[in-house]
Amino acid sequence: MAMAAEKGAPLFEHLVFSIVPSRDLIEAQIVGLQGTIEDHKGEVLAIKRNGKIDLDNVTHIIAATSDFPQYLEARQNMICIVRPSWVTESLLKRKPAQTRPHSPDPNLFFSTLVITCADIPSGDKAAVAGAVVALGGMESSSLTKLTTHICALTMDHPKCQQAVERNLKCQIVLPHWFDDCLKLGKKIDERPYLLPNPEILRVNPDDAVPLPTESTNIQGASSPRPESLPLPTDSPRHLDVFQSKTVMMSGDLEIGSRLRKVLEDLVIDGGGAITHSVHSADMFICQWRDGRDYVFASCAGIDVGNLAWLYHLITHNEWTSPLRRLLHYPLPRGGIPGFEEFRITLSNYGGEARTYLENLVLAAGAEFTKSMKVDNTHLITARKSSEKCNAADEWNINMVNHLWIEESYARCKMQELTDPRYTHFPPRTNLGEVIGQTQFDPKVLKAAYFPKDPTPGPDDPKPLSRPVMQEKDSNLSSPRKSDDDTAMGSQDENNDQEDEHTGKAEKKGHASLPKSRATTAANVSTPSAKRRISTGRGNSTPSSSRSAKQQAVLYISGMAGDIALYEKEKKRKGPIWGGERAANQIDKQRSLERSSSPAQKEEDGYSDEETRTPKRQRISLPPISIKLLVTGYQAWVNNPTKEDMDKKKLRELGIQIVQDPKKCTHLAAPAMVRTKKFLCALAMGPTIVRSDFIDACIKTGEVPDAEDFNLKDSDNEKKFKLKLKDVGRRAKANKRSLLKRVPIYCTQDIPNGPETYEDIVKANGGIFAIYNGKPTIKKTNPAEDEIGPEPVYLITGQKPTERKLWPSFAAMARDGNMLPRIVTTDWILDVAMAQQQKWDDSYLAEGQ
Question: What are the Basic and acidic residues biased-composition ranges (predicted)?
């Protein structure tokens, strides 16, 4: 093994770290890590007093868990997030280690594994290795000191014998363990599968299995409404978790004045503040997933949790996401559709796990019974061995594990019982050991509970013109690295909200790429997002079609009462809420009737995203001099009102905000980021300016010289090993033909979807197709080919379904007298960023 890097070696030069404290990463460890990093030329930025990490400047975040406030934002900005073990391995390797095996992402449950296979069939070996790599682990062909698991059928293989002789700290497990983990989607205890005497082969499956120890995933989260505050109320503690936070407690909590006063005092004494307006809150505590305040808080990115979550913060004095534990999030009023007809009981769960599942059943809207009778509909069990299990088989009662109720609740929809994950019971394992690991997905909650355009009431200071929380731009990452490892910043989140991929909605064909290099297929255009107008009686998407106008007329005819009220209220003095709101509805509908076609809007100088009022239609606008594509502009994040106003001001200055990279003349960004929008725009050779170019235009009311705002980013230039000025010159010279006649294939299952890479390839003039294993290159006789072998690329991830395609792709390319290159996404991203065709063997997919 290589010796550790010596003190003073520039191992972490140009890297900037922040370290997140937690129960598993205490202050003493943080001090040691900081000293080690600084000894090797790295820089450590302290977390701000308000608990925020400086995401604009850090390159790596060291955390023992993914449960910290800015985890999702950091991943969307493609910042590397690693456990402390990454620093140790980097020192041992004397170079920065791969980040994926050290990711705290709970979905990568094999991330701590380094496996090697022994005496198992080659097909099983490929399947096990592919699964481990896809779920964050690493596979090695040989046995090393870093190996954590040997996959074997017997102890006879030399690798197993060496592990015993050298007393290596690695587990020798049957391949059945990997199989059961994959079937459940969870990492279970490997002890029943350990060689030389595995329990699953020598013990009767029906023999008793001890209940697992209490899971930390449900501690303090077994009930959505704790009966009491788990602290003495006569001696409030100082709580750092509320430092610089503003908390609002909703009226639907229905707690007494004394308890409310105690909770408010705890927050204030801990450096926080209490508010009665959701618009000022950082945390919103409520009981139910409904009401205007709940919707506003959710859409505005405010942390929304219930009383159990608040108690958990107070008890542990450590921030945790309310989405991490199912019963820390407000309850669905009425439960999950369909569960009201179920009578559910439990078996083989004990202690707090049983309490947790009882409350989860009730929260889902079902009836819970302690005993089981013939009229029970479901039995949730941790093992398929008990009197209740036998009775369930006899009475034809559905028998499932707890993943069914957890995922039904988390996905806000009853899951199908036919999914084998819910009916799988590994022998000699009590599934209570993996209870509480299911988390909420914000996108699922948004689709189920957040109206597209909640109408503000009279107490709202600012109306919402559209939902604040919107679809994020896809994050691009290399399958060999973590989402954090590619430095593919996704600072477009809120500015890319309308940047949808039509490829997902269209059925794509597989273009034939013969040796003659077929011409590029038609580019996929991005549909323009229409402005949603709130009516107060439902949400509708206005259109310039005749049917939409007729619907608007019919709707206005139904508002006769409101119109009469409006005419009456107009005559009153002072602030008028009802009349003004009715007026807004009428003006919006009149504007809808008079709206022109999209083509007319473009002719008038308006973008597809702009909605004009009748007054604006009568004002002539200056011609468009700049078509600006914006990415990562923080002033518009979670502030659609300001975004709308700024876009109108910019248009009045002759600047049109566009979403299609092909139409832009200028690109505004805070830094060099490897997002799809940034890379596609680079191919156009635009003038690249800093984001504060927008600020200057808004502030002065004039368009300054763009040259004074040229983007300069020396840190990322070093990181990507290029000069932005050179990139711009090359892009202009390429004229969108950097990849002209270069055939590029992509796997269907690649992370982030093939549509993302298709847009980048086509923006640079390449030929793109999805490879599904069927030959699309014609066979060629090398002797008759005057050109000679030229490269053909397959962009791939590391999933087993993708790896299976590699041999057939290579064979297809060679039959066509072409040079096969099976590459990670880093290749196309680096090529697009540099605007220069480049090649290095490091781009080859691992294991090909």
Answer: 459-484, 500-509, 600-613
